Amino acid sequence: MNNPRARSTDLLLQSTGDDLVVFDQQRNTTHTLNRTAALVFEQADGTRSVADLAALLQAKLNETADEDLVLMTLDKLRRAHLLEDAGPRSAETLRASRRRFVRKIGLVGALTLLLPAVETIVAPTSAMAQSGSICAGGCECACGCDCPCVFCEGASDLSASGCDTPCEFCGEASVGGCEFTVGLLCEGNVEACNGGL
Amino acid sequence: MPSSNPADAPLKMHTDAFVEADALYFSCYGAQVGILADAVGVLPALLDRLPPHATISDAPVSSCTYQLRLTEATPDSPHCTLSLGNTTLVDNVPLTEGLNRLVSSLQVAVSCHAQNYLFVHAGAVVWKGTALLLPGLSHAGKTTLVKALVEAGATYYSDEFAVLDDNGRVHPYARPLAVRDEAGQVTHQPVETLGGVAGTKPVPVGWMLALQYERGAVWEPTPLSAGQGALRLLENTVMARTRSEDALRIFGRVMETAQAWQGKRGEATQTVAALLHLLEAGG
Q1: pLDDT per residue over B217-250, tens digit each?
Q2: Over the range A42-55, which residues count as b (16 or more CB within 10 Å of their CB) and which as e?
Q3: Does A23 touch chain B (CB under 8 A)?
């Protein structure tokens, strides 16, 4: 496995409290990375191995941190398109990392704060952020600038139940609950999307 | 602009070429907006319906210019077409409807073209010197909650837009509250008619509550991290994409002082009691 390298182009970064807020100018998505995810994102520069990153997390966060935690974090960053290398690990490998680490720390208590969290939204278009102008089939932009609907990107056929575009992140059809819906209703593979939790 | 009654406007038939007969320019939070009409007597009706804190300009400068064209010569039923740039917003509708559409669109224009300020869809009140933001899109119940907070003694800042400056402070956008009745009819009520007062000065944000109305919901808000709070603001920001850099910087400053919560809420009166208890307890 090559050393992981975080994306560095077309991103705006803002430290906010313990979190790092990242705006992706290519995809118009915004992510909030908790401290674990932020540390891995900031330090994964292609020169550090997974073991190096684990040592860094141990020093900065808690000695319980290990390579499984780093791998879980990298998977979350990868799904958010924040890593240069795009190849995902298999769902089974991912589940194994997660199982091992969760078994190690338990599911309750302060150590669960070590778990990486990446929350993602699609930045709204001006039309979507206006009262009364959320696309419901008409895609009318209240300011008259004709911005495309954030959901259907101008297709103007969003029904009350939402557009059926596959989830941007897992790219599959599923039965809801995907944490990466980012405005595109995930109809598919919850397990792949949620990392098997 | 001698008359303020649109029905008194001298009307004329629609022609392809727009001939400007009257103009109104204003600025608001750095947005410069122009309205051109092809008849005199129409625009004065807008003077007391401009966005709050708008200042009439003498100079014909605008980053956003509307054209209002009268389209029918029937004095009893004047009609109009309203356009913005190359986009027709309404075509040959009753003049009153066209003006209502224009008034609504002017607020949007200001929110999009504001300079040095960022507009976030959020109710805003001040409680004991610190601002409380309630982000949410239309029909999220912002006005209902803001109205209840004002009636409980909060200072009114806005029921629609939190206007944030570069330091993360919120400025007043004290338009009349758009109160919706059970039938969905909206009436515009100046805050003074509710016994409240509007704020005049910028204040730092102390709390940000992303609340979603649900009938019978139990009040159990959960705290958000600073980054999550910033995300809740960003997803309600008017120019989130084109001003993403400003938004991140400003929200970073907001969250230096603000505590953020999210959750479901029930009826406004119960929510306000619980919410004020939360604020009094220091979050």
Answers
A1: 888 899 999 999 999 999 999 888 889 999 999 9
A2: ebbeeebebeebbb
A3: yes
Query: Hey, what domains does chain B have and what are their CATH numbers?
Result: 6-113 (no CATH), 118-280 (3.90.228.20)
The pLDDT tens digits of the residues spanning A30-59 come to 999 999 999 999 999 999 999 999 999 999
| Neighbour-count burial of A91, counting CB atoms closer than 10 A to its CB (0-12 exposed, 13-18 middle, 19+ buried) | middle
Chain B residue with CA closest to A141: the answer is: B89
Whether the CB of A124 is below 8 Å from some CB of chain B: the reply is yes
Q: Is B83 on the interface with A (CB under 8 A)?
A: yes
Residue A35 located in a structural domain: yes
The whole-angstrom separation of Cα A193 and Cα A188 is 8
The dihedral over CA atoms of A14, A16, A22, A23, expressed in degrees to the nearest 10, equals -70
Domain that holds residue A95: 11-121
Interface contact flag, B230 A129, Cβ < 8 Å: no
Q: How many structural domains does chain A have? A: 1
Is A34 close to B225, i.e. CB distance below 8 A? yes
Q: Is residue A147 domain-resident? A: no
A96-105, A170-179, B15-24, range with the lowest pLDDT: A170-179
Query: Looking at the complex, does the CB of residue B269 fall below 8 Å from at least one CB of chain A?
Result: no
What is the value of ipTM here, to two decimals?
Answer: 0.84
